[in-house]
What does this fold into?
Amino acid sequence: MSARQIRLAAAASGAALLLAACGAGSDGGDAETTGGGAEPAAGADLELIQDGVLTACSEVPFPPFEVEDADAPSGYSGFDIDLLQAIADNLGLELTIADVSFDALQSGTTLVAGQCDIGASAMTITDERKANLDFSDPYYDSLQSLLVAADSDITGIADLAGRSVAVQQGTTGEAYAEANAPEAKLTAYPGDGEMWPALQAGQVEAILQDWPVNREHELADPDYKIVEQFETDEQYGFAFAKGEKTALQEAVNTELQALRDDGTYDEIYSSYFTDNS
Ligand code: ARG
It folds into this structure.
């Protein structure tokens, strides 16, 4: 039980004692006037869209961070989702996932519109995004990479002039490609769910995106390989509409630290990652 749950339980039993002392509760008749007498809903002070539910927006699939999974409680799993599920569990909240456009999520549009309480989408913390978003403490270190067919003559970013390269719209990978491969023919796709099939179908010659996702593809299909990685020193954070979810942001940070302290973070991490990232 988390410190927060203990506090909530203590508050609830305090309320019950108070009701008993007032003689209310036997017929329930006075319950309305004494504040309902029920336990406060989990997360009552977190300004959630729906009481007792943590509604998270993500762009899926982005393996191994977010994938559909019929066996998971939310219908999704992956490093981000499992971590957020553990956070939600500790806060006594149910987790619901909405699959949304990454571009609108990273720009702040989706969260500011109130579609979700939190963004959980392998989102890199950047100063630009901080104009519209608040971020949790970082929970994962990442970098960029270039994935091509194993028999491609592309050996790195220096070979991309005139070549067709897929990037995900609104991502740090897109920005990196625009800045460092200005001669490449970039095509922005909504997500990895479109880019990976496009590479496999030969519609593009390369994908420039977060290393762990390209790594997942390289491991799944030996016909493709990462030819270069770019040390961009990125860190992922959970995102919130700027200034609107500070209690939730604080609760998420507290639980993130608790998961690091009790070994749950490492357990989830090692279920998805074996090597250096
Ligand atoms: N880390 C990159 C960024 O923040 C890509 C994230 C894409 N995430 C996703 N779930 N599609 O721009």
